[in-house]
Amino acid sequence: MKLIADSGSTKTDWAAIAPNGTIVGTQKSDGINPIHQSPDDIKAVLNQLEPWAHEIEEIHFYGSGLRQEKQLPMQELLASYFQVEQTKVEAQSDLLGAARALCGCEEGIACILGTGANSCLYNGAQIVQNTPALGYILGDEGSGAVLGKRLLNGIYKGALPAAVKTLFEQELQLTLADVIERVYRSKLPNRWLASLSTFIYKHKDTYPELSQLVVDCLHDFICRNLLPYQRTDLPVSAVGSVAWYYQTELTRAASLEGLRMGKIIQSPISGLVDYHSHL
To answer: What pTM value is reported for the model?
Structure first.
């Protein structure tokens, strides 16, 4: 039996599949990111899993923060925890997971637009080019975290209508002092910033400025991350909450650069289950 996992900074989706491709069980757990979490922190997340997740012989784990130097330690941790031979454990970046889920064995441009953001040029088997994401402080254009940053910047520097500021502070019960505390003194501020996307989505039809904020953010993502691939002939496929909930804005932003959208899915786990069911 195979255990498939797709992990972001916020949550992890798990699925176990039998040799015939039948799904044995699915579950969500907290997110796993080896850059921000210690091995003990990761094991604490693994302890959340249901018993069926431990009756496996093969693991395919895709996660944020799994740079090349982090992949072997993660493989070793997973093999040890689940008592599986290390040769039967694969720990890959969430970006390769997204490409496999979105494109399968076909060539294309694959994007992650969720709490964080990333992209790659995929040749149907492997990633051949990647514009570095650089994280939510230096990059991550188009991510939920950056949407949250731009929302706060627009609210408190006056680029958004005063009514949006009033609504934001009333609805979320926040002041500027609270915002500063959350961003600069709390743990994992990128997750909190990304959570503010819910406010944008809820009110973007009432306040066109919010919808335009999303288009501008996604257009920035496209210009800085996708155009360097110089493959405007390929479809752009995307996975993640931002891609899913802002499909209209994403399509508008892509059209500004003559790009066509391909597949848009909320989570890659179903695509990964299909991919590994046929291997």
So the answer is: 0.83
